């Protein structure tokens, strides 16, 4: 038998339209799909056990599919270099193929593996797969990275996009390879606090959900995407994109195909364009992280790292537990805690609240989000948190979301609040968004005692927002004067 190609799976747990697997299959020789569980890396991640269970379920389905195609998945535990050294000895592969990852940690890990492989005389091939355009493919006229979304989007949208590859018809495997257990939360001794998943794991589930969305929600996306109570208002593809159970090429190709119909109603055309613009946000933040790899630790606007954060643990706990006294904030935080997902509009509101009402460092929120979100990933999470904190890229400097106005506008019937904050479910709409407006008599009438059954607001929004704006403006002015 000829020497095999190792296909290293990481955050691309699928067989359909997988660049590295597809190219390995084209060699016609034996293929060994490998997944490595690096306990040292895992120890550093904030992720809840539910996220590992989600990944394990995706891996289980992947293993079944690879076996059916002819090349069983080989799962190994250990440090990546050590596992590869063992596999090099065991299998004498001729090459390693993998899909590129743009996070700082992944980049340095991949460089180590590449050096190791070359030292063994093993070829290394990496592929574009996770994005439509790699961070260096989109650039300003001067060849520089973009730091504002809109011009990035214009250039990104105009570039020709790669087509999906499909699934290999069959693979030639290597018989008798030893593989270890699935890395479930239990196997990794990781506590599981998020009880359910908002999204089903695996490529079949991704495909089903996407098919339903592209025939339904996508057509009304522009009008519906901002309403957290609508389960079908957005695609919920983010956990699938995070674990690679569906490809970005597939989503793009299917969505853009709709635009080819000249009779497409204007509302649908706008919706599809809006959806493509969201996919571009994902790539914009990959672009930013690749060009500015220090941003997970430091604000893009450096001077924001001098902001006088208050650091109240008590306020942070109230935010985490969904007990701030602001119903929309609390509904969203409870949705996250119970399902590992939160709607985008709600993410913007709770992030603004943490930073601009509670005056807590955006990094606290970023880490907590990554510990709970099934779609939690460094680029999108850091990028969006910095955006929400007015500490990141993008032009408009100071946005402060009013949690009551957001609630009235985007949960007008209170369905989202009633679902996630059941103690408020019986309140009439008049009070649902602002329960503190109820007199003691009204509280008695509706069977809710504030301060006992549901908290009074832990801060006064108007006062805190004004104080944030003042401190922000002062700091900005101070920085600009110093610079002059
Ligand atoms: C504070 C904050 C933190 C966030 N953290 C993450 C994160 O860790 N991982 C993550 O994938 N998204 C993150 N987002 C972006 C966004 O909220 C989610 O991508 C979206 O809610 C996922 O739901 P969906 O798949 O139904 O989105 P849809 O509306 O159906 O959008 C389709 C896809 O576009 C991409 N997308 C949409 N909006 C954004 C955005 N603002 N930034 C980047 N990509 C976007 C996602 O890949 C999404 O799956 C964050 C947003 C905020 C405000």
Helices and strands in order:
Layout: E1 5-9, H1 19-26, E2 31-37, H2 39-44, H3 49-69, E3 74-77, H4 80-91, E4 95-99, H5 104-119, E5 123-127, H6 149-158, H7 203-215, H8 221-224, H9 238-243, H10 248-258, H11 266-291, H12 313-321, H13 327-339, H14 344-357, H15 362-372, H16 378-388, H17 403-410, H18 415-420, H19 429-432, H20 440-446, H21 461-483
Parallel strand pairs: 1-2, 1-4, 2-3, 4-5
Helix pairs in contact: 4-5, 6-11, 10-11, 11-16, 13-14, 15-16
The structure holds flavin-adenine dinucleotide.
SS element count, helices: 21
Average of the residue pLDDT scores: 96
- Percent in helix: 40-55%
Tell me the number of strands.
Answer: 5
Query: What fold name stands as the CATH topology of the largest domain?
Result: DNA Cyclobutane Dipyrimidine Photolyase, subunit A, domain 3
Which architecture of the largest domain would the CATH scheme give at its second level?
Orthogonal Bundle
What do we call the CATH homologous superfamily of the largest domain? DNA Cyclobutane Dipyrimidine Photolyase, subunit A, domain 3
SSE order, as H and E? Answer: EHEHHEHEHEHHHHHHHHHHHHHHHH
Structural class by helix and strand composition = mainly alpha
Quick take:
The chain has 484 residues and is mostly helical. It has helices at residues 19-26, 39-44, 49-69, 80-91, 104-119, 149-158, 203-215, 221-224, 238-243, 248-258, 266-291, 313-321, 327-339, 344-357, 362-372, 378-388, 403-410, 415-420, 429-432, 440-446, 461-483; strands spanning 5-9, 31-37, 74-77, 95-99, 123-127.
